[in-house]
Design goal:
The chain has 16 helices and twelve strands. The protein has helices at 11-14, 30-45, 65-78, 96-105, 132-140, 159-176, 194-202, 222-230, 235-248, 258-271, 295-309, 339-344, 382-399, 414-435, 443-455, 462-472; strands at residues 3-5, 85-89, 123-127, 147-152, 184-188, 205-208, 284-289, 311-313, 319-322, 325-328, 349-358, 404-411. The strands form three sheets. The chain has a five-stranded mixed sheet with strand order 1-12-11-7-10, sandwiched between helices. Strands 3-2-4-5-6 form a five-stranded parallel sheet, sandwiched between helices. Strands 8-9 form a two-stranded antiparallel ribbon. Helix 7 links the parallel strand 5 and strand 6. Helix 4 runs parallel beside helix 8 (222-230) and helix 15 (443-455) crosses helix 16 (462-472).
Length: 479
């Protein structure tokens, strides 16, 4: 079971000026009562509107898990063993979850292994940008005749994914002709939209982007499950872990609800509300896994935390400029690039470590080098060294009075990754209520989308070309 050790966020460890006093979050306190009230609110909205993601891992008639998982397995089984490669096309929430699952749950050298060592599963490439060099480089190493293309777009009008798809479609049509439709699985709106029209016309196999599930909350839907299933990841275990965590996160008791506790810590520290007279706000939130495979889960977290909570106005329409800046780091690597700043720079950060108790594989540091200064390493497992590095950095944060917590993974597997994903999603829901903002919209993103349409000449957006040129076409300020 995934656990949170949050002692490092408390005043008894990092001081009254930087930590939360344990008595202020004890049972019966206003903070605990507030969590109980918010939990009741979340129970009322659970599974409705933009909170339908909470049902994605729930089995039975009340959840949507059975239908989605069955559909994913059916399509994945139909394609089992057929492909040498799989190319996922998407951006933002349509890509980050896929990347994180592959990184956490398959070997880093997955795409270099022979197909027999991959259990017959394909190599997986996720293209999440319109950098032409990046896409061209991937297309150089795959054969369209032996590749399955997975395009993910609810509407089909996201410029980045649309451009990727148009290039791939042309490539496929030239390479395999009428067989192209058998090389595409699209994940899109079940009933409407540009991509739905394209799929119906071209005869592509489709899976649904569920209604009421935004991109950054979609990894436990077909959006993330299909590529995972194609790569041999146990999606049932992933959903089991998520369901177990979601159940824990329905507890009204702050001290039994990990998402409520995590949100309470981060919001109170992030806004400076952890002291009755007000404390120094710590709006920068670092997530630092001590396992390379978990590093890209921190990338997934960054989108979730930033896009959900970074809002100009509250629910009353008042300017509040809410939000926290998520930062990813990697232990022990970033002890040698970031920790100097983290310890002696501004005390405006909360640090979340991710620790693995048992690694799937380990290496023993051999003896025999004959150097006295390094003899302490001889015969030691490398996992012990990595966790000692984490423990030492945690102590360094204690010494510098920097608030910190640890997410403890018993091991890295699908079950515990599912727990992690659901933990942060529910934490985000609590944090949105605590900040009194809408955690599910992203109005600031839309401006960039419209400006892009204008710059690329899309009908109906010509005014944006003028806006951009008028604002940015300045001369005489270039060095």
């Amino acid at each position: 079971m995934l656990q949170i050790d949050y002692a490092g966020c408390l005043a008894e460890r990092v001081g009254d000026e930087h930590g939360i006093n344990a008595k202020d979050i004890a049972p019966g306190t206003p903070a605990a009562q507030r969590v109980s009230e918010l939990t009741a609110r979340l129970e009322q909205t659970r599974g409705t509107n933009w909170e339908r993601w909470r049902l994605l891992a729930e089995p039975g008639a009340n959840g949507t898990r059975d239908a989605h998982a069955s559909a994913v397995k059916e399509v994945a089984n139909a394609h089992s063993g057929k492909w040498e490669s799989m190319l996922v096309l998407g951006i933002g929430g349509s890509a980050l979850g896929n990347i994180a699952l592959q990184s956490a749950l398959n070997p880093i050298a997955w795409n270099l292994l022979p197909k027999s060592d991959r259990g017959g599963h394909p190599r997986v490439f996720v293209v999440d940008n319109v950098d032409p060099v990046n896409l061209a480089s991937v297309l150089d190493v795959i054969d369209p005749k032996t590749t399955l293309f997975n395009v993910i777009s609810k509407s089909g009008e996201t410029a980045e994914t649309a451009a990727q798809f148009m290039i791939v479609r042309d490539l496929l049509n030239k390479a395999v002709g009428d067989e192209a439709k058998n090389h595409v699985v699209a994940i899109t709106d079940a009933n409407k939209g540009t991509m739905r029209t394209i799929c119906d016309t071209e005869g592509y196999t489709t899976l649904p982007v569920p209604d009421g599930v935004g991109g950054r909350f979609s990894v436990l839907s077909p959006v993330g499950l299909f590529s995972a299933a194609m790569a041999g990841i146990d999606i049932d275990a992933l959903l089991d872990g998520a369901h177990e965590m979601e159940t824990r996160c329905r507890e009204a008791d702050l001290h039994k609800n990990p998402a409520a506790m995590l949100a309470t810590l981060l919001v109170h520290l992030g806004t400076g509300c952890y002291r009755s007279e007000g404390g120094e706000a710590k709006p920068n939130h670092v997530l630092m896994p001590y396992a390379n495979g978990l590093y890209l889960l921190a990338d997934w977290f960054r989108q979730l935390w930033a896009e959900s909570l970074g809002k100009k106005v509250n629910t009353q329409g008042e300017d509040v400029f809410a939000g926290f800046t998520p930062i990813k780091a990697l232990g022990a690597t970033d002890q040698h690039s970031q920790v100097q700043l983290y310890r002696e720079g501004p005390n405006d950060k909360v640090f979340g470590f991710m620790e693995v108790e048992s690694f799937d594989r380990d290496l023993t540091i051999p003896a025999g080098l004959g150097v006295e200064a390094l003899s302490y390493l001889e015969g030691q497992p490398m996992s012990k060294l990595l966790n000692a590095e984490k423990r030492a950095t945690e102590y360094a944060m204690y010494e510098s009075k920097r608030p910190h917590f640890t997410l403890k993974f018993p091991k890295v597997d699908a079950h515990h990754v599912g727990e992690f994903i659901m933990l942060w999603q529910v934490t985000t829901a609590y944090a949105g209520l605590m900040l009194d903002i809408d955690a599910y919209d992203q109005p600031a993103v839309e401006t960039g989308k419209k400006a892009t349409f204008g710059l690329m000449g899309r009908d109906g957006y010509a005014e944006w070309q003028g806006k951009v040129d008028g604002a940015l076409n300045r001369t005489g300020h270039v060095v």
